[in-house]
Amino acid sequence: MPKVDSDLSVNIVVGDIMLERADAIVNPANKELTHGGGLCGVIFNAIQKSDPSGQNYRQIMEEIENIEVGNGRIRCPTGDAVLTSAPGLAFKAIIHSVGPIAAEHSEAKQRKLIKSCYYECLKLADINRFKTVILPLFSAGIYGCDKQLVADSALEGCDQFLEEFPMRYLRKVNIMVLEPEDAELF
């Protein structure tokens, strides 16, 4: 089936990513896709709480276990993205993507990897025919990257997606930030 031409809106939204509605939510994951801290922890905790029997949590962990393991225990290399379902959540899927840790990379490499996170997430959303996706600020929290660098890289990743996918399913991208001053970075 051919892709549909659509207008794509990219919005910067202040709020709680878990309270938004979209086809897919993006988890700022670790390379092993394990239950982590920050937003990653919030997402996994929400899945656990959605079903007291634990079935939803077992389901996502089984999906993660079925993702091919690369070097070591890496299921998702930095700058890449993978997809699972979103059991118990109000989303069709979770796109997991790994941003860089500031202390491990130069600013130029951080910029390249963060741009890749946004691009790969949007590409994966489009390939799966999602119309709406919500993304966080990658690596701006516990991974320690400069928020302005992250905002600039996010827009670069979105621009690359728009250039390379002029005909697409994706119609709405929300980049969620927690504080109003973070929205001013864009």
Biggest β-sheet: strands ordered side by side in the sheet = 1-6-5-2-4-3
Low-confidence stretches: 1-5
Secondary-structure class: alpha/beta
Give, in order, the helices and strands.
EEHHEEHEHEH
Radius of gyration: 16 Å
Residue share in helices? 25-40%
Ends apart, CA distance between termini: 35 Å
Query: How can the largest sheet be summarized?
Result: 6 strands, mixed
Strand content bin? 15-25%
Average of the residue pLDDT scores: 93
Shape: globular
> Counting H and I runs of at least 4 residues, what is the number of helices?
5
Count all strands and give the number.
Answer: 6
Description:
The chain is an alpha/beta fold and 186 residues long. Helices cover 35% and strands 17% of the residues. It is built from 5 helices and 6 strands. It has helices at residues 38-49, 55-65, 107-127, 147-164, 180-183; strands at 9-14, 24-28, 81-85, 93-97, 132-135, 172-177. The protein has a 6-stranded mixed beta sheet, with helices on both faces. α4 links the parallel β5 (132-135) and β6 (172-177). α3 (107-127) packs across α4 (147-164). The chain is globular and about 40 Å long. It starts with 8 loop residues before the first strand and ends with a helix.
Question: Any chance you could write out the topology, listing elements then pairs?
Answer:
Blueprint: E1 9-14, E2 24-28, H1 38-49, H2 55-65, E3 81-85, E4 93-97, H3 107-127, E5 132-135, H4 147-164, E6 172-177, H5 180-183
Parallel strand pairs: 1-6, 2-4, 2-5, 5-6
Antiparallel strand pairs: 3-4
Helix pairs in contact: 3-4
